[in-house]
Amino acid sequence: MSLAGPPADPLSCEEYGYGLGRPDGILVIRYRAAGVLEFGQRRQDFLHQLYWSPDGVLSTRYGTDTQFVGQGEAFWAQRAISHEVRGGDWQSVYRLCLREVPPPLDGLRAGAVSIDAEAARLIQTLARPGCAEPEALTARARILSGLGATTRAYVGHHAIGPGFAMEVARTMSHDPGAAITLEEWAARLHISVKTLQRDFTREFGMSYSRWRTLLRLRAARVLLDTHPVGEVARRVGYASPSAFVAAFGKEYGCTPGRYGHRPDDTC
After folding, report:
1. Cα 54 from Cα 179, distance rounded (Å)
2. Does residue 2 carry a pLDDT above 70?
């Protein structure tokens, strides 16, 4: 793991191992840094990896496939699979190292997976002092059962309504720059625009337009330290850099350029 940004950026890294050396063991590592966190894996790795963040978007790459991992998801990579994962500034990233493939992910080499609320809670529990090994290994089994490789599993894990908004959210999270309107989504799902908009309000407490704006800006924050503003604007779906700058400034109170080169106490 390497940390991008000035060498003075503080990095917090805590490791918690349970049953290490056994097939059912687990190592949980919690990272947090002032700069961008970047994880790059080589093919000689012998442990499966699961990355999850409770407070931000992850940018991931596997082969030629680059996608973002959004709310309620993690990124999975089997051993010996080359991949990259990037988290934003002051974003907590949890990394689980396993010797066994979770049954729900059997056959998946690498990619975004859903994670239910209880599994997410237990990951944070394991990354704290004082968790006894028997309890930790029981929690490990529950975490693995709370993963899912399909959109259906994602909807089942998170939807409180019929699941239309959650299905859209998972697809959009992987590609925030996709120019798909609410009307187009409604047509794809064979429902009315009003029904879909109502479901977004039920699931997220906001409209589709507002939810998409927040998704795009959160994805942009992961990229700004390492990409020019114009490229970031294009990748997250803005028609022009000026439109992106205006939206970013309205949300965060500073320009994207200042955000990408700020001292620790600004923006």
Report:
1. 26
2. no
